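Issue 218. Parser rejects a valid record. Input:
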Amino acid sequence: MPDPEITIECDAPASIVAYLEDRLYEFNVQATAIADGTGLTALLRDENNEIVAGINGHTWGASCEIKQLWVAASQRRRGIGRRLLEAAEAEAIRRGCVQMLLSTHSFQAPGFYEKLGFERIASIPNYPRGHEQIFFKKVL
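Output the parser choked on:
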């Protein structure tokens, strides 16, 4: 019997991404016996209820990982990013987390995170080409 065909998809629907994340979380729980994973999202909406800023990640095993932090160009330089990160940090502490983790790129906001007490712990050069991905950690 031939091997099943592998298909490549661009921009998989959110339902597929969620399915894969759920299966990986199930494996991680089985491997670690740590089952306290919970999403963490905070949003700022304008007067039309449109999202103009947000932060998203999760807590698991006494750690908080931030996956996305975004502020609309029209809302930048007003302290909103700092407020979102501080809100996520306060919630992470409330949940018993002892550290926060995130990554950014050299063209994004490494100085912003450093000003807020994050320590650079690693980087990957040439990701993307001509730039670097930087990993940060903050002890809570």
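Fixed in the parser; the record now loads. The radius of gyration is 18 Å.
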